[in-house]
């Protein structure tokens, strides 16, 4: 308190703040509008108490400097997790594949580009006429009576899921579809192999069911080379085990497939290359599923009986003797091992 009776002397920091407030510096006023411009401005926060500095920080932040953003420096870049890096890799691989497909189509003369209409909404996929050599069915369906160029339309194609046919388009062009099969980390000749970009059990199981749909599509359009590749990925690339539930879901996809349409049957009869000469009548993926479920039959009945009979009682699965074939193989296995076989009447 000033005992002289004169005005109370203010601390130097308050006087400095008043001067800066009057000049508009603390409130963002343009320096050109001030009566003078200090060539060596003093940071007024140095004259403020700690509480004053905290109070003034947001206002000064808006007027004196730009806040650092995540993209302004490597130190502020968040560290990505392994799952994020895997997702980035998958996106990059898919993008590269799409680029290859587009480049192939772009390099194909317009008159040789074939539009294939797929699904109920007639989604368009484009390949070259030369690519159709891998599918006798698609080649037989080629129409060139349009001014817009060659195309393929058929009722059987409207029943195919467009997203699944994307893999068919990629195989027609590149002899491959994603995910690609890669070696076991312990060696190229060691099973099971891996699928590129897949890591978790759920990813492998989901891809197995999807591959079942691709297998059926390849079979329906007579693409035996793609069918063989899908079969290889399903049976050899079990780096994460499928489990009984996944096998039953896959079996339902395979055994409940539609019958070959009349046109495909005619194409197969006229094109020996459409089927392998030595191929047995039993479908190879059906046979593999029967063997896989036969080995696990006690666990199937103990833990997944409801799903098993749901598949077995499906009309198409019953016509293809899904349950009977598993039981027959189970009996043959027990007989070969000398085990006792007890058949009980449910009644």
Quick tags:
mainly alpha; 3-stranded mixed beta sheet; two-stranded antiparallel ribbon; 5 strands; 5% strand; disordered C terminus
Protein described:
The chain is mainly α and 347 residues long. Among the domains are: 20-64, no CATH class; 84-242, Potassium Channel Kv1.1, Chain A. 51% of the residues lie in helices and 5% in strands. It has a three-stranded mixed sheet, covered by helices on one side. Mean pLDDT is 78; it is low at 25-38, 44-80, 273-279 and 343-347.
Distance between the termini: 108 Å
Task: Please list the strands of the largest sheet in the order they lie side by side.
Answer: 2-1-3
Q: Which spans have pLDDT < 50 for at least 5 consecutive residues?
A: 25-38, 44-80, 273-279, 343-347
CATH-defined topology of the domain at 84-242: Potassium Channel Kv1.1, Chain A
Separate helix tally = 15
Biased composition (Basic and acidic residues): 7-22
Biased composition (Low complexity): 71-82
Region (Disordered): 1-90
Secondary structure blueprint with pairings:
Layout: H1 12-23, H2 50-64, H3 82-107, E1 113-118, E2 123-128, H4 136-140, E3 151-152, H5 155-158, H6 162-174, E4 181-182, E5 194-195, H7 201-220, H8 224-236, H9 244-255, H10 262-270, H11 284-295, H12 297-303, H13 305-312, H14 315-319, H15 322-337
Parallel strand pairs: 1-3
Antiparallel strand pairs: 1-2, 4-5
Helix pairs in contact: 6-7, 7-8, 7-9, 9-11, 9-13, 11-15
Brief sketch in words of this structure:
With 347 residues, this protein is mainly alpha-helical. Helix content is 51%, strand content 5%. The chain contains 15 helices and five strands.
């Amino acid at each position: 308190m000033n005992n002289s009776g004169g005005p109370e002397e203010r601390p130097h920091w308050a006087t400095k703040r008043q001067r800066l407030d009057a000049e508009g510096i603390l409130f963002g006023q343009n320096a050109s509008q001030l009566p003078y411009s200090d060539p060596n401005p003093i940071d007024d926060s140095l004259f403020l108490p700690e509480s004053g500095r905290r109070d003034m920080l947001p206002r000064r932040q808006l007027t004196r400097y730009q806040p650092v953003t995540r993209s302004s420096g490597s130190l502020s870049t968040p560290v990505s997790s392994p799952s994020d890096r895997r997702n980035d890799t998958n996106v990059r691989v898919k993008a590269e594949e799409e680029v290859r497909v587009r480049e192939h189509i772009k390099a194909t003369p317009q008159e040789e580009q074939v539009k294939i209409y797929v699904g109920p909404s007639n989604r368009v996929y484009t390949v070259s006429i030369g690519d159709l050599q891998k599918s006798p069915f698609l080649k037989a369906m080629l129409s060139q009576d349009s001014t817009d160029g060659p195309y393929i339309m058929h009722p059987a194609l409207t029943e195919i899921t467009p997203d699944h046919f994307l893999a068919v388009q990629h195989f027609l062009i590149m002899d491959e579809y994603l995910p690609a099969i890669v070696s076991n980390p312990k060696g190229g000749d060691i099973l099971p192999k891996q699928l590129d970009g897949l890591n978790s059990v759920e990813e492998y199981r989901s891809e197995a069911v999807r591959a079942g749909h691709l297998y059926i599509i390849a079979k329906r359009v007579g693409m035996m080379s793609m069918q063989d590749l899908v079969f290889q990925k399903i049976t050899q690339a079990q780096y994460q085990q499928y489990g009984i539930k996944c096998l039953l879901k896959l079996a339902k996809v395979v055994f409940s497939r539609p019958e070959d349409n009349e046109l495909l049957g005619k194409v197969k009869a006229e094109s020996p290359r459409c089927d392998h000469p030595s191929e047995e009548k039993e479908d190879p993926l059906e046979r593999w599923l029967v063997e896989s479920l036969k080995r696990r039959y006690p666990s199937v009945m103990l833990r997944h009986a409801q799903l098993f009979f749901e598949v077995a009682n499906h009309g198409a699965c019953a016509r293809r003797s899904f349950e009977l074939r598993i039981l027959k193989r189970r009996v043959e296995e027990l007989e070969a091992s000398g085990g006792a076989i007890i058949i009980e009447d449910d009644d």
